[in-house]
Design a protein that fits this description.
Blueprint lengths: L8 H12 L21 H28 L4 H33 L4
Helix pairs in contact: 2-3
């Protein structure tokens, strides 16, 4: 087996902290999981969706760090990265549609 690559001293502590705070490999990132606690408020639903996107991105980062350290598989890192990428693409598409809808409303004659 190939030994793990030692961390670079200038960023070694931040990587070690990131690995220590990383969730377990295979844990769900919560993408698309909007809870009922803020049901009824668009602001709460939007905030939860943004938090889920941030969680997916952080999970991908942490699993990638774990894979670099040799404690997670490359497959898990690839899956987490793909989940974060898809969540980002979804957020971008929803934002584009919302801006398009707002522009349509603003261009309506009164």
């Amino acid at each position: 087996m190939i030994p793990a690559i030692p961390p670079i001293p200038s960023i070694g502590t931040s990587i070690a902290q990131g690995i220590a705070q990383a969730p377990s490999v295979g844990a769900t990132s919560g993408v698309g999981a909007v809870g009922a606690s803020g049901a009824g408020s668009f602001q709460n639903i939007l905030g939860q969706a943004i938090d889920a996107l941030n969680g997916a991105t952080n999970n991908a980062t942490n699993v990638s760090l774990q894979a670099a350290a040799g404690t997670a598989s490359v497959a898990d890192a690839t899956i987490a990265s793909t989940e974060a990428d898809l969540a980002t693409q979804l957020a971008s598409a929803v934002t584009s549609k919302a801006v398009s809808a707002l522009n349509t409303i603003m261009n309506m004659p009164m």
